[in-house]
Design brief:
The protein starts with a helix and ends in a 6-residue tail after the last helix. Among the domains are: 106 residues, Sandwich (Immunoglobulin-like), CATH 2.60.40.10; 142 residues, TIM Barrel; 62 residues, no CATH class; 105 residues, Golgi alpha-mannosidase II (Immunoglobulin-like, Sandwich). The chain contains 16 helices and 33 strands. It is 24% helix and 23% strand. The longest helix is centred in the middle third of the chain and has 20 residues. 50% of the residues are buried. Helix 8 packs antiparallel against helix 9.
């Protein structure tokens, strides 16, 4: 047989060339973020060194540069495994924010990488950011929170109930509601159902069994409303929530409209015996919660107070009360005059010319610019409630960006507030209510985090229901719009650094917005034009379950609004403040929440791991949560028909030939935790998703490891 030696040599050369070729540039394998796998230490100190990492496919790139300012830093190959190479670069920090992005070079190809992933051009607002010295407590990272609107949770002490005719509030007398199941009236702010702190204590077994880590209370301080966002006295828990040991005086007569004659109310809320007893009950509740491993967060309303407030005293409640100074409304010489901004210097006594928040005279705006005394007082309050004997674990701050009359005052105050809180309790958190970008405050010196409207509540609501969060609008173009969901995620999550994101309050519902379960009926309106019953009609529990799966697997602290887990519906406030349906709960929904909470707490990657969006189609979203040890896949099919999907999963670190296990599958008619195995072949897993469903898949290798190390696993 004749051999062509030249042809043979050419074939050998071509084989060698092919074997030495770099695989096709794999952009999907590129990854970095600021979690602990890619920034070490994850929360570095000022003037320290930090190791920053970047991941690529094996033998797939030439060079990686970390770009900080104008400087390009060549990253070195640190390690590799079967699928990935890890590049690293050690950087020296100062005491200012450290921002950066990456340049990836592969042959003639190159790209940029920032918080959005692979991009063609870099924009400053999407660079990775590290804030030296910014740390948030470990207990809050991924913590399951439970928000309680106290008046509507459980009545544990009928003796402290607000009575019908006890006082006058916003145009009419208070009403004691005897029917626990009654829907709140359209003007329900003066209706009281009797829920109190003793009721929370009585239901502590339920909260512990549910699996929560934190109770977040709507305001508890002395206030005339049931919502208590119009604080009357910051120093004391409202005796209507606490304990009434002195109960003297009379109700307002039929024709009496002035609260200075509401002697029963005045005794209840000014008598120091009642106030001290109520504070003691709160301390008892916190101690009991801590025994059970549950933290407690208070709601702080410091932008404004209420017209009933002892510093203002527009209702003349404190005018003749023993042990109290005259309020600023009463007389010009009041020690609290500087706490408010008055516009008519000749209107005393009983000067009503003060600034109200958004013009509401029932909500006097606090004047921090002109009152050192007020400034110091509130900082004392900030420290008081997180220190012994009360030992609360932090603050949620109402309309925090509105505080003060200038940005300068606002930022200075929150810096001082955080310092006061942390000095009193180094493990306490400071989280704010805020609409819009919180970046200016999430700098490591002011707020720790925010209620996550923009990067969680709103995108999830639009995607799954097409509804605005107040149920004021339905948009067909937003329903199932994966591009909008992903775009909102990329944009708004860039405002957070990792310490803030991991403790961000991820809610589906709260006291300001319609219940998520009601949003699933896609009905636009409120209780005053549709009636409360309409909030219960046409709801879709399957969509609610999808949302809960996302809530329990998304970066941040999943926060359940009381009753969501029991199937409570409601339009926006006050209808969203219905009572907890004790004895008539949706038990299946409660069981489902328990299962999802258990899964959430058992999987560390859900607490502090990375996030990667895997795919986004109409009404279909898939994403992964992962670290170097464990990987989770979440798939949500919001279509009303079955969908098959081939998902590439090895990008998450899942072996290309392996097995995954489904820990949760929700469907139209319920949910299942049956152990179903899925085969990963060639780095892909094939899924058939039922209509309106969500699945949670877990890398089985970790389950085995976890079982061997811990001897048991919580979700089996």
């Amino acid at each position: 047989m004749f051999f062509d030696i030249n042809r043979l040599r050419k074939a050998e050369y071509e084989t060698q060339y092919i074997n030495g070729m770099r695989p096709v540039f794999n952009k999907k394998a590129l990854f970095s973020d600021t979690t602990e796998d890619y920034v070490t230490p994850a929360e570095p100190e000022p003037y320290s060194h930090v190791m920053i990492r970047f991941r690529t496919a094996v033998n797939n790139v030439d060079r990686i540069f970390l770009v900080h300012g104008e400087a390009r830093h060549l990253m070195m190959r640190e390690s590799k495994d079967e699928y990935f190479e890890y590049f690293s670069c050690e950087m020296e920090l100062e005491n200012t924010e450290f921002s950066y992005y990456f340049i990836v070079e592969a042959g003639k190809l190159n790209c940029f990488y920032d918080t959005r992933g692979v991009v063609k051009e870099v924009q400053p607002e999407y660079q990775f950011r590290i804030i030296p010295g910014f740390k948030t407590p470990e207990w809050a990272k991924g913590a399951v929170m439970y928000q309680i609107y106290v008046d509507r949770f459980y009545n544990g002490d009928p003796a402290n109930d607000v009575l019908t005719g006890e006082y006058q509030y916003i145009g009419d007398k208070t009403v004691k509601v005897d029917d626990w199941e009654k829907y709140p009236a359209a003007m329900g702010v003066r209706e009281f159902y009797g829920g109190d702190l003793q009721g929370v204590l009585d239901k502590m077994d339920y909260l512990q069994d549910l699996g929560i880590d934190v109770i977040y209370f709507n305001p508890l301080f002395v206030s005339p409303s049931n919502h208590k966002y119009d604080i009357q006295d910051y120093d004391y828990i409202d005796p209507h929530f606490g304990r009434i040991v002195s109960d003297e005086g009379e109700l307002l007569s039929h024709d009496q409209r002035e609260n200075r004659f509401a002697s029963r109310y005045i005794d209840r809320v000014t008598n120091k015996a009642n106030l001290e007893a109520s504070n003691a009950l709160f301390a008892e509740l916190v101690a009991e919660a801590h025994k059970r491993g549950i933290r407690v967060i208070l709601d702080g309303v410091f932008n404004h107070c209420g017209s009933f407030n002892k510093w203002m005293d527009r209702e003349r409640i404190y005018e003749n009360a023993e042990g109290y100074e005259k309020g600023a409304y009463i007389e010009k010489e009041s020690p609290y005059h500087s706490y408010f901004k008055f516009h008519n210097d000749n209107a005393w006594p009983y000067n009503g010319s003060y600034d109200g928040w958004w013009g509401h005279d029932t909500l006097p705006k606090l004047n921090y610019e002109d009152s050192r005394e007020l400034y110091a007082y509130i900082l004392r309050i900030a420290a008081k409630w997180v220190a012994p004997p009360y030992n609360a674990d932090g603050w949620r701050l109402d309309v925090a960006a509105d505080l003060g009359y200038s940005p300068e005052t606002n930022h200075r105050f929150w810096k001082d507030f955080r310092r006061a809180v942390r000095e009193a309790n180094p493990e306490a958190i400071v989280l704010a209510e805020h609409y819009g970008s919180p970046r200016a405050w999430l700098n490591g010196k002011e707020w720790d985090t925010v209620m996550n409207y923009d990067a969680f509540m709103e995108p999830v609501t639009w995607f799954l229901t097409g509804m605005q969060k107040h149920s004021d609008d339905f948009r067909r173009d937003m329903l199932g719009n994966a591009d909008n969901f992903i775009g909102a995620k990329k944009h708004h999550m860039s405002d957070f650094t990792t310490p803030s994101l991991q403790i961000a309050m991820n809610e589906l519902s709260n006291h300001d917005h319609s219940r998520f379960l009601t949003r699933t009926n896609r009905r636009v309106g409120r209780t005053n034009n549709l009636g409360p019953q309409a909030a219960n009609e046409g709801i879709n529990k399957a969509v609610m379950r999808e949302a809960v799966v996302m809530q329990m697997t998304w970066p941040g602290a999943p926060t359940i609004y009381y009753g969501d887990e029991a199937g409570v519906c409601g339009f926006t406030d006050p209808d969203n403040r219905r009572t907890y349906p004790w004895g008539k709960e949706d038990q299946e929904m409660i069981r489902f929440h328990k299962e999802m909470i258990r899964i959430h707490k058992a999987c560390r990657e859900l607490l502090t791991g990375s996030l990667k969006i895997m795919s986004g189609d109409y009404n279909l979203i898939s994403y992964g949560r992962f670290n170097r040890q464990a990987q989770t896949i979440v798939v949500v099919n919001n279509n009303d028909h079955e969908v098959s999907k081939d998902l590439t999963v090895w990008y998450l670190g899942i072996p290309k030939e392996s097995t995954m296990k489904c820990l949760m599958l929700t469907e139209k008619d319920g949910f299942s935790t049956e152990e179903v195995e899925y085969t990963v072949s060639g780095g892909k897993v094939y899924l058939v998703m039922p209509p309106i469903s969500a699945s949670h898949l877990f890398n089985c290798q970790y389950i085995i490891f976890h079982y061997l190390k811990k001897e048991k696993i919580l979700f089996f």
